[in-house]
Amino acid sequence: CSPEDKIYIYFTSGSTGIPRALLGKNKSLLHFIQWEIETLGINSGIRVSQLTAPGFDAFLRDLLTPLCSGGTLCIPGPQRLQGHRQLIDWIDSKQVALIHCVPSVFRLIPTEILTKEKFPHLKYVLLSGEQINPVELKPWDEACGERIRLVNCYGATETTIIKTFHTIQPGELQKNLIPAGFPIKDAKIIILDANKNICDRGIIGETYIRTPFGTD
């Protein structure tokens, strides 16, 4: 098995043009998985939810983060996602400690059920793929505080899952936007103008992700 081996194929969404197939490399996927395990302090006791459809590249982090750390992948049956109560009961009964999902799935958990005792095993919720509405997260902060950390993640299929992250702080929930955060280890975010020059602070430009762990 080589770092350069092609190990998966995914199509881009086509939101910026015609969808195209991308060949993901062993080293690019491992780069993210190792970062998540090290940054979150994941160990063999971790229990991770699988709430992402296999047709999206984020499915790979659901699958491989627990398997590469010796943890447990928790897969709900179809009925578990058909109602709020089923999803809540499933998270509790499976003792899920880490959830990866898009904000629209996270909204399925009604905030009125939140208490300081709810979800005693849950430690992290990593949100990506959609813009976060800070107002919707206030009940989580009020009930759970820092016991359950909410993390905003950003990336593109071309750069393998995510390349920036930001642990959301209570004071930020009063704002209109949540920051995309800082790049993960061995990745770099650059803001360039129309002439591909680096923008000064406060100048609007395009976001470029520089990493040796991309796709073909």
Structure commentary:
The chain is of the alpha/beta class and 216 residues long. The chain is 22% helix and 22% strand. It has 5 helices and 11 strands, in the order ββαβαβαβαβαβββββ. The protein has helices at residues 26-40, 59-69, 84-93, 103-106, 138-144; strands at residues 6-11, 21-25, 47-49, 72-74, 98-101, 124-127, 149-154, 164-167, 182-183, 188-192, 206-210. Strands 5-6-7-8-9 form a 5-stranded mixed sheet. The longest helix has 15 residues, at 26-40.
Q: What integer is the average pLDDT?
A: 89
> Beta-strand level of the residues, as a percent range?
15-25%
User: What overall geometry do the principal axes of the alpha carbons give?
Assistant: globular
The span between the termini is: 18 Å
Helix % is: 10-25%
Unreliable runs, pLDDT <50, ≥5 residues?
Answer: none
Number of strands: 11
Major beta sheet, strand line-up = 5-6-7-8-9
SSE order, as H and E?
EEHEHEHEHEHEEEEE
- Rg measurement, Å: 18 Å
The structure class reads alpha/beta
Number of helices: 5
> Major β-sheet, in short?
5 strands, mixed
Secondary structure layout:
Elements: E1 6-11, E2 21-25, H1 26-40, E3 47-49, H2 59-69, E4 72-74, H3 84-93, E5 98-101, H4 103-106, E6 124-127, H5 138-144, E7 149-154, E8 164-167, E9 182-183, E10 188-192, E11 206-210
Parallel strand pairs: 3-4, 5-6, 6-7
Antiparallel strand pairs: 1-2, 7-8, 8-9, 10-11
Would you kindly provide a brief summary of this structure?
The chain is 22% helix and 22% strand.
